[in-house]
Amino acid sequence: MASRSIDDRWYIVDRKTGEKVPTPRHGRGLRYRARYRDAHGRMHYRSFADKHKKDAVAWLDGQVAALIRNEHVDPKRAKMTVGQWCDVWLEGYGTNRPSTVRQARVHIKLINAAFGTTRVADVKPSDVKRWTTRLAGDYAPSTVYATYRRFAQVMGDAVEDGIIPRSPCSRKTSPGSAKQRPYVATTEQVWALHDAMPEHLRISVLLGAFVGLRVAEAAALRVSDVDFMRAVVKPAIQYPAQPLKTETSKSPIPIPNELALMLAANVRQYGGETVVTNETGRASSPWAIERAIRSSRGQVAGLPEGFRFHDLRHYLASLLIGKGCDVKVVQSRLRHANATTTLNTYGHLWPDNDESTRNAIASALRCVPNVSQNGP
Question: Tens digits of per-residue pLDDT, 162-204?
Fold first, then answer.
């Protein structure tokens, strides 16, 4: 007891020797303080009671081993909860488009409901799988997959930021995309929908089905964005006056002269600055167009209850594929960033000629000697 009261100081556990080294007094009682520097040169400390020297050495060895494996996590940041990290993550994500950030906030709300108070380092792959299973009971497969992908993005950035050594999300924990094949309307249904729409919004159906514009692009299409003489549509902005989804979305779209004349007639009739207007010639909105679609689709035989404006783009894709256009042409007209998106969405629409594959294999078999029609 005497030595302890006299030697009332902290000790540092030397990383190499494991011996305690006296330091100036920082607290009360005899304790060990293990310390090390990380790859960035930052010093980290942790104190242990005098009788827990083995714990101090074990902790120090574990931290150094993590540094060697490139799996080191700042002990202070390791205490951060998922909710706290999501707040930090959203601040950095705020540079994206407002609509993209709003969608992320919806996903983050579901993530925080399950993991908000859990430390980021404590989330295990099994926790993620149980979570997606529970979500599947309340939400559509597409929503479950999108929320999971957001969580994987957030946890992946936590790895990059040095909060955790590896993400609990992987292909093994993914619930699967569960993408459904899009509904493809017939030409008769498209024109029936056109006729069922309010007269001032009928032109929007043509922009979706024959130009391939998205609803926010159709609502924001200005008269100046259409070259009526050369029959070319040049999307420049999306509603209300935001940049387009991607640079590829700015690609000019050639249209038939007949459609250019129909667009020009609509502009003469309503005289607005945009091609799609309300009854008084002022710019319409995506919500007004979608609302009209919902009100009119019930008047068209065979259209599903969930039919929306975006499904008109699916019609355009099927029309082009049916006329023999290859994947690069369809990608260009739909302004997809890459052909993979086009194939993933519309690959099933391209015809599969069974006879062409049979003939290709048969021609190879005929080149093999000593092979008869009855086999070797």
Answer: 788 889 999 888 887 756 677 888 999 999 999 999 999 999 9
Single-letter residue type at 211: V
Query: What does residue 6 show for φ and ψ, rounded to 5 degrees?
Result: -75, -45
Give the amino acid at 357: T
Spans of all domains in the chain: 2-72, 82-160, 187-349
Look at domain 82-160 and name its CATH class.
Answer: mainly alpha
Q: Which two tokens stand for residue 332?
A: 């260009």
> Of 74-78, 98-102, 177-181, 345-349, where does the model show the most confidence?
98-102
Q: With CA atoms as reference, report the closest residue to 206 among 226, 178, 224, 229.
A: 226
Dump pLDDT digits (tens) for 193-221: 999 999 999 999 999 999 999 999 999 99
φ and ψ of 33, to 5 deg: -125, 110
CATH class held by domain 187-349: mainly alpha
Determine if residue 326 is left, alpha or beta; phi over 0 gives left, psi from -120 to 50 gives alpha, anything else beta.
beta
pTM of the model: 0.62
Closest CA to 39 of 12, 61, 69: 69
